[in-house]
Specification:
GO cellular component, one term (chain A): plasma membrane
Largest interface: B-C, 60 and 46 residues
CATH superfamily of chain C: MetI-like
Strand content of chain A: 25-35%
CATH topology of the largest domain in chain A: Rossmann fold
Radius of gyration of chain A: 25 Å
Keywords (chain A): ATP-binding, Nucleotide-binding, Transport
Oligomer: heterotrimer
Largest sheet of chain C: none
Helix content of chain A: 25-40%
Subcellular location (chain A): Cell inner membrane
Number of strands of chain C: 0
CATH superfamily of the largest domain in chain A: P-loop containing nucleotide triphosphate hydrolases
Shape of chain C: elongated
Number of domains of chain A: 3
Number of strands of chain A: 22
CATH architecture of the largest domain in chain A: 3-Layer(aba) Sandwich
InterPro entries (chain A): AAA+_ATPase, ABC_transp_ATP-bind, ABC_transporter-like_ATP-bd, ABC_transporter-like_CS, Oligopep_ABC_C, P-loop_NTPase
GO molecular function, one term (chain A): ATP hydrolysis activity
Chain lengths: 532, 315, 271
């Protein structure tokens, strides 16, 4: 008998059909991954098992845990199962813990709420389980508060809470999406270890196909609330049957061909740049300390070149980006564009600034919700001495929108009428409209679904040849950087630890950090589904 | 925690200093010559001169300010011009009416509002919640002094459970004193309770949408357990802010309410002083009121740190 | 358009209408004494009855509405016109000395309830409606400053603001073009709420004699006059009280309704 058996699960919320006859099975000791793009219903499936669905949800079908039907179980009995027979780990570790309670209290609570042990025994078990997840009490006493821990550490606490009572089933909903590559690798190893050690079954929800290929024994692919394909991992990877699955895997490993870069002539020169932040005062009369976000960084970006910048969160890449754009002053070193310094004394030189533009990460936050597309796209005109007006202006807008694959009629619409991928296209149009010499892409595709990401990468490749783009592509996603750049810089703790041709750095990394980074990143194996 | 408290204490001291400057500036500088202001146009020159010396107007403004502040720190608030008694004595008597009244109202308001807000949040959308929302919607619209008049009409005049006014005095015992203050305190407390209940409810509802509440449910806590063990303490943080603000409104409100109940508090003192142009009394009463508000806000700041551990590690 | 909004707007308009009409017509002259007709309860000839001087209560209420609305409205005007720019400036220069100064200033003014400010002003400058406007207005400034600053701060974090900075726009321009339009909704709602609070505050000030002085009629003073007679002529206190309640209620309902209408992103509580 399987540990978890979902049969024909259908779910609707307020008359919207979310899930349509979803079925899947998990055995003890098995990891089943449910994957798909946003809106596929994978998270809802997990919430349905826990019966933590939002209000207005109507479910039908069957969910059996160890043979017991739980879909129709009354709430009180469901509470007894949650945390004891089924544990759940969520996506956002930064907000998953109660900020005003200690980690010890929160882990012990799982045990005490089920009256499984005396408080003394519960505390012992809490210590055991926190040690098991990599937070030994000598370094992380139970009296610590969540805000004193990093994202990865908080996620470990959440895992500790979920497994404290050795549940039979562990559900993990995008458990590592919000974490760095190296931390992700550690957490995934932890989860794998726990499954083997405790003999648990694990339902893992993730959009990251490389993670899926790495971890799962069994893969279920979902789309628009339906299961599109399900098979043991090896069988799926070697022989996908459904076109959607093939498309998904192909898009995950999407490669683009960039036109050859011209002979090197430096455009952007960054030399010995230092950026310090003053820390808040910890003592009343002591000098506030400094945090060095960028530590003597030097590199050159050539005309027509596509340079990548990779690093994990906190490495200083965002700070460096802002300094290059002239948004923040630097405390040391110099940044020059086409030979001219970006900073004129303390102020950024507008003449230079108009030669650079940026595309940001969040397609939903990058635009003022009250403005129409034509106004949004022409915002950089503010930097020009004589911005085009009248028909010149509308021509430019139309040209840009067409170049990014949209229609000139879209100029009159509001931003909320567009999807995430379309918004990023508009963001690219905005960056391109004043024909800057340099564009910075700051995690520009990180928030997009895999298939949309592939389209945007194609668009970039196309624009490279049409407009002779020079860009700095900042990302934590190694597989994207690998295909969209000619050269790459690797940044750690404010320093550039390695630079070189992309292919070279990825196949034969020199610096130990680069090696660790590449080793930690889950790799999508050869699937035979890649487009020629 | 110590660092945080010291920082708050410093803030308190600065606020008091600046507030005293402002009050001094308005009272002593604005009317031009306080002495002729107090005595009126028909004052005799020698009375004027005598008052000037008494008020210390021959000194410079800075000297007058310093002597005023140092006087207050010693407990000397000057002498009332109209009554010829030390202001500190007049204030002390009245303070023991106004301050207990404000605190009594604060206690009542909190005791009614917090449970009501929690109840409404726990039953969101259901009849219980709608009833509370309806009652509070009405409650916030009611002027407290009008409400006081209605209470007097019903409970004092018709039912005779309370006196229609007057203060029994603390020397007649704690219960007797509180009895005289009960109707006024209720009049003050209910409209404020309406506001506070809504704040409590909305703070809780905001918290209910937070991720850590979902984590709590995933551990096996029932909705009620999650609300009590996790939601409440977090929701208290914004509620504390409002309670602090409420005290200043309650103090001001008690000044007004005293008129309905003929209570011998600071209100009557200061209104009479305004009519009599006794600037010394006005100055002292205002300073005291502001002092009370600033101190209460300081205590609320300390309470924050007790509730929210994140504040204890930052400065 | 929710029920709240319609009901609230209806009530509020009724009161505003009464105030406006009072300039051209009232059933009787609100100041005309008519001792023989004194202390009548509401009847066909005097819809709200008469007071202890025989004055028509309905007319007095209409004219009193003018005072309440004018004072509260001007006080909101003061609060907004000074508070909003301060809040925007503080958010634009977060962490700087300007921000600290504005925040401390806010806290300081919050220590002075409108009543206390009114006491200070009246003691020195004499009583009058202008004092009430200034006292309530001054207290409104930190309210708007704080709320603007809070909303602006979260907007400054958003990427579209960063995009505007990359486009070379300075803090002042960004505050005007991007921040202010996006906080406007919040300010409209808060303005309505402060308006209703202003009505209550004005009533309290007139009640203790610190607001509009005779012969300008005000609801608060009607209540003060009614106090001694509440046992045998309760309508003298009930009528102005209900007028205040209904006006404030109407404004609050309208504020709630506006909030729901302007920001339709309803929060769905997760289980």
């Amino acid at each position: 008998m399987s540990l978890l058996q979902i049969t024909d699960l259908s779910l609707s919320i307020h008359a919207y059909d979310i899930l349509k006859r979803v079925s899947l099975t998990i055995d003890a000791g098995e990891i089943v991954a449910v994957t798909g793009e946003s809106g596929s219903g994978k998270s809802m499936t997990a919430l349905a098992v826990m019966q933590l669905l939002p209000g207005g949800a109507r479910a039908s079908g069957s969910i059996r845990l160890d043979g017991q039907e739980i879909l129709t179980l009354p709430e009180a009995e469901m509470c007894a199962l949650r945390g004891a027979a089924v544990g759940m780990v969520f996506q956002e570790p930064m907000t998953a813990l109660n900020p005003v309670k200690t980690i010890g209290d929160q882990v012990m609570e799982t045990i005490l709420i089920h009256k499984a042990m005396t408080p003394i025994r519960a505390e012992e078990r809490a210590r055991e389980v926190l040690t098991r997840v990599g937070l030994p009490p000598d370094r992380f006493p139970l009296s610590r508060y969540p805000h004193e821990l990093s994202g990865g550490q908080r996620q470990r606490v959440v895992i500790a809470m979920a497994i404290a009572l050795r549940p039979k089933l562990l559900i993990a909903d995008e458990p590592t999406t919000a974490l760095d590559v190296t931390t992700q690798a550690q957490i995934l190893d932890l989860l794998k270890g726990l499954v083997q050690e405790y003999g648990m079954g694990m339902l893992m929800i993730t959009h990251d196909l490389a993670v899926v290929a790495d971890m799962a024994d069994h893969i279920t692919v979902m789309r628009h609330g339906e299961v599109v394909e399900a098979a043991p991992t090896q069988r799926l990877l070697t022989g996908m049957s459904h076109p959607y699955t093939k498309m998904l895997f192909a898009a995950s490993d999407h490669r683009v061909t960039l036109p050859a870069p011209p002979p090197p002539a430096p455009l952007l020169e960054v030399s010995e740049v230092v950026r310090d932040y003053a820390l808040p005062r910890t003592r009343l009369f002591a000098h506030p300390g400094h945090h060095r976000a960028v530590d003597h960084v030097s590199f050159a970006l050539n005309r027509g070149e596509r340079l990548g910048l990779v690093g994990e969160s906190g490495c200083g890449k965002s700070t460096l980006t802002r300094a290059i754009l002239g948004l923040e002053p630097v405390q040391g070193g110099e940044i020059r564009l086409a030979g001219q310094p970006v900073y004129d004394g303390k102020r950024a030189n507008p003449e230079i600034r108009r030669r650079m533009q940026v595309v940001f990460q969040d397609p939903y936050g990058s635009f003022n919700p009250r403005h129409r597309v034509d106004r949004l796209v022409t915002e950089p005109f503010h930097l020009l001495d004589a911005p085009p007006t009248g028909s010149d202006r509308s021509d430019r807008i139309a040209e840009m929108l067409t170049a990014v694959g949209l229609s000139p009629d879209d100029a009159g619409k509001y931003i909320h009428e567009f999807s995430g991928g379309q918004r990023q296209r508009i963001a690219i149009a905005r960056a391109l409209i004043i024909r800057p010499q340099l564009i910075l892409f700051d995690e520009a595709v990180s928030a997009l679904d895999v298939s949309v990401r592939a389209q945007i990468l194609d668009l970039l490749a196309q624009l490279c040849s049409e407009y002779d783009l020079t860009y700095l592509f900042i990302s934590h996603d190694l597989s994207v950087v690998r295909t969209i750049t000619d050269r790459v810089l690797v940044m750690q703790s404010g320093r550039i630890v390695e630079q070189g041709e992309t292919a070279q750095v990825f196949s034969d990394p020199a610096h130990p950090y680069t090696r660790a980074l590449i080793a930690a990143a889950p790799r999508l194996p050869e699937t035979g589904a890649r487009r020629a | 925690m110590l660092r945080y408290s010291l920082k708050r204490a410093l803030s308190l001291a600065i606020s008091l200093a600046v507030a005293s400057l402002v009050i001094f500036a308005v009272i002593e500088i604005a009317p031009g010559d306080p002495a002729s202001f107090m005595l009126g146009v028909n004052a005799q020159p020698d009375t004027l001169a005598a008052l000037r010396t008494e008020l210390g107007l021959d000194q410079s403004k800075a000297e007058r300010y310093v002597s005023w502040v140092t006087g207050m720190l010693r407990g000397d608030f000057g002498t009332s011009y109209t009554y010829r008694t030390p202001v500190s004595q007049m204030i002390a008597d009245r303070l023991w009416v106004s301050l207990p009244l404000a605190l009594y109202a604060l206690a009542l308001s909190t005791a009614i509002a917090l449970p009501a807000g929690i109840y409404a949040a726990a039953r969101r959308g259901k009849p219980g919640d709608l009833a509370v929302m309806g009652a509070t919607q009405l409650g916030v619209a009611v002027p407290n002094f009008w409400f006081a008049m209605m209470l007097v009409l019903i409970f004092a005049i018709n039912l005779r459970w309370f006196n229609a006014g007057g203060f029994a005095g603390w020397d007649k015992g704690l219960t007797a004193g509180l009895h005289s203050l009960t109707l006024p305190a209720i009049a003050l407390a209910l409209p404020q309770a309406a506001i506070l209940a809504r704040v409590m409810r909305s703070a809780l509802l905001d918290i209910l949408g937070e991720d850590f509440m979902r984590t709590a449910r995933a551990k096996g806590l029932t909705r009620r357990q999650a609300l009590w063990r996790h939601g409440l303490r977090n929701a208290l943080i914004p509620v504390l802010t409002i309670i602090g603000l409420q005290f200043s409104f309650l103090l001001a409100g008690s000044i007004i309410i005293e008129q309905v109940f003929y209570l011998p508090g600071l209100g009557r003192l200061v209104f009479q002083a305004i009519s009599a142009r006794d600037l010394i009394v006005v100055e002292s009463v205002v300073m005291l009121l502001v002092f009370a508000v600033i101190v209460v806000n300081f205590l609320v700041d300390l309470a924050y740190a007790l509730v929210d551990p994140r504040l204890r590690t930052r400065t | 358009m929710s029920r709240n909004l319609i009901l609230g707007a209806g009530l509020s308009s009724l009161v505003v209408l009464a105030a406006l009409i009072s300039f051209i017509w009232t059933p009787y002259d609100h100041a005309a004494l008519n001792i023989p007709a004194k202390l009548q309860t509401p009847n066909a000839r005097h819809w709200f009855g008469t007071d202890h001087f025989g004055r028509d209560m309905f007319s007095m209420i209409m004219v009193g509405a003018r005072t309440s609305i004018a004072v509260a409205l001007l006080a909101v005007g003061i609060g907004m016109s000074l508070g909003v720019p301060l809040g925007l400036a503080a958010a634009a220069r977060k962490g700087s000395w300007l921000d600290e100064l504005i925040m401390r200033g806010n806290d300081l003014v919050f220590a002075f309830p409108s009543l206390v400010i009114a006491i200070l002003i009246t003691a020195v400058f004499g009583a009058g409606a202008v004092n009430a406007i200034i006292a309530i207005g001054i207290f409104n400034i930190p309210v708007f400053a704080r709320i603007t600053r809070g909303a602006a701060l979260s907007l400054w974090e958003r990427e579209f603001i960063l995009a505007a900075r990359v486009a070379g726009k300075g803090a002042a321009r960004i505050s005007a073009e991007h921040i202010l339009p996006n906080v406007a909704n919040l300010l409209i709602v808060q303005g309505t709420i402060q308006f209703s609070l202003g009505i209550l505050a004005e009533a309290g000030l007139s009640y203790v004699g610190l607001g509009a002085q005779p012969p300008t009629p005000s609801w608060g003073r009607m209540l003060a006059d009614a106090q001694t007679m509440v046992s045998f002529a309760p309508h003298l206190a009930l009528i102005p009280g209900l007028a205040i309640i209904l006006t404030v209620l109407g404004l609050n309902l309208m504020g709630d309704g506006l909030r729901d209408w302007l920001d339709p992103r309803l929060r769905v509580a997760r289980t």
